[in-house]
C-alpha cells in the first residue's frame, strides 16, 4: 500500500519557454483558459481566492471567474461573507487556477475594487432564477444549525418572489481584481517545472522573468 509520501507522478505533457508566451499576460491567460475549455476540463473557470483577516490569518475558498479583460478578473459574492469582510479591511488578494489535468497552474496577485451597482445588477439578472433565490436565502458564512433550516429559508424566499422579478439583494456584489503579478506554471520532467512571472511596472508595462521551480 502506498503512503502519501509515495504518491507522485512525472510531468511530461508539455514544455514552456519564453518564446511560447505572449507579451501580454491577460492575452496569455485567455489562451490557456481557452485551451482548458477546449479540453473539456471540469469547471475551467473555478479559481481559489485567498484573503487575509485582521490577525494575518489567510483563508481560501473556490469561486467562479465571471469575466476577464485588460481591466482585471471578476467574481461575485455576498458582501457580508467572510471573504468580503476581509477584502473590505485589506483589498489585497491572490487567485489560483489549478488546471492540474493539463499540468498547468496560473497564480494572480493584485488588489480588488468593487464593481458598480449597474455591473452587479446586470450579472445578477443573468443568473438562473434558483441561483438568484439562493443569494437571498443564504446569509453566507453565518452558522446554520441544519440544512433543513437553510432549505426552509430558500422556500420562503421562493414564495416571496413567486409573482415577479427577483431584485438585486443589497448585500450582493462583485469585485474586480487588478493584477500586478501573474505567474504561469507548466509542469516539467524530474520536477524541473517551468515558471514565468509577469510583473507590472509603474508605467503599465509587463516584465517577464523565468523563475526557478
TrEMBL record:
Domain Pyridoxine 5'-phosphate oxidase dimerisation C-terminal: 172-213
InterPro entries: Pyridox_Oxase (IPR000659), Pyridox_Oxase_CS (IPR019740), Pyridox_Oxase_N (IPR011576), Pyridoxamine_oxidase_dimer_C (IPR019576), Split_barrel_FMN-bd (IPR012349)
Pathway stated in the Swiss-Prot or TrEMBL entry: Cofactor metabolism; pyridoxal 5'-phosphate salvage; pyridoxal 5'-phosphate from pyridoxamine 5'-phosphate: step 1/1; Cofactor metabolism; pyridoxal 5'-phosphate salvage; pyridoxal 5'-phosphate from pyridoxine 5'-phosphate: step 1/1
All copies of domain Pyridoxamine 5'-phosphate oxidase N-terminal, residue ranges: 34-159
Keyword Membrane: no
Cofactor note: Binds 1 FMN per subunit.
Key words, A-Z: Flavoprotein, FMN, Oxidoreductase, Pyridoxine biosynthesis
Catalyses which reaction(s): pyridoxine 5'-phosphate + O2 = pyridoxal 5'-phosphate + H2O2; pyridoxamine 5'-phosphate + O2 + H2O = pyridoxal 5'-phosphate + H2O2 + NH4(+)
UniProt GO molecular function: pyridoxamine phosphate oxidase activity
Cofactor: FMN
Residue positions binding FMN: 61-66, 76-77, 82-83, 105, 140-141, 185, 195
Keyword Oxidoreductase: yes
Pfam family, one: PNP_phzG_C
Assembly and oligomerization: Homodimer.
Known function: Catalyzes the oxidation of either pyridoxine 5'-phosphate (PNP) or pyridoxamine 5'-phosphate (PMP) into pyridoxal 5'-phosphate (PLP).
Protein name: Pyridoxine/pyridoxamine 5'-phosphate oxidase
Amino acid at each position: 500500500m502506498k503512503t502519501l509520501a509515495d504518491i507522485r507522478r512525472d510531468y511530461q505533457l508539455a514544455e514552456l519557454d519564453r518564446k511560447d508566451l505572449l507579451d501580454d499576460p491577460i492575452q496569455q491567460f485567455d489562451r490557456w483558459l481557452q485551451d482548458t475549455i477546449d479540453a473539456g476540463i471540469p469547471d475551467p473557470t473555478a479559481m481559489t481566492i485567498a484573503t487575509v483577516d485582521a490577525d494575518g490569518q489567510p483563508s481560501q475558498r473556490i469561486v467562479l471567474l465571471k469575466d476577464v479583460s485588460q481591466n482585471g478578473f471578476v467574481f461575485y459574492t455576498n458582501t457580508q461573507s467572510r471573504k468580503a469582510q476581509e477584502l473590505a479591511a485589506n483589498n489585497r488578494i491572490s487567485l489560483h487556477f489549478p488546471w492540474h489535468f493539463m499540468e498547468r497552474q496560473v497564480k494572480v496577485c493584485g488588489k480588488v475594487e468593487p464593481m458598480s451597482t449597474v455591473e452587479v445588477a446586470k450579472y445578477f439578472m443573468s443568473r438562473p432564477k434558483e441561483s438568484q433565490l439562493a443569494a437571498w436565502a443564504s446569509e453566507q458564512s453565518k452558522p446554520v444549525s441544519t440544512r433543513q433550516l437553510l432549505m426552509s429559508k430558500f422556500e420562503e424566499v421562493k414564495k416571496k418572489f413567486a409573482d415577479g422579478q427577483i431584485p438585486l439583494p443589497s448585500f450582493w456584489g462583485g469585485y474586480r481584481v487588478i493584477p500586478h503579478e501573474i505567474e504561469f506554471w507548466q509542469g516539467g520532467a524530474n520536477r524541473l517545472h517551468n515558471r514565468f512571472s509577469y510583473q507590472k511596472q509603474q508605467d503599465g508595462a509587463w516584465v517577464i522573468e523565468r523563475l526557478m521551480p
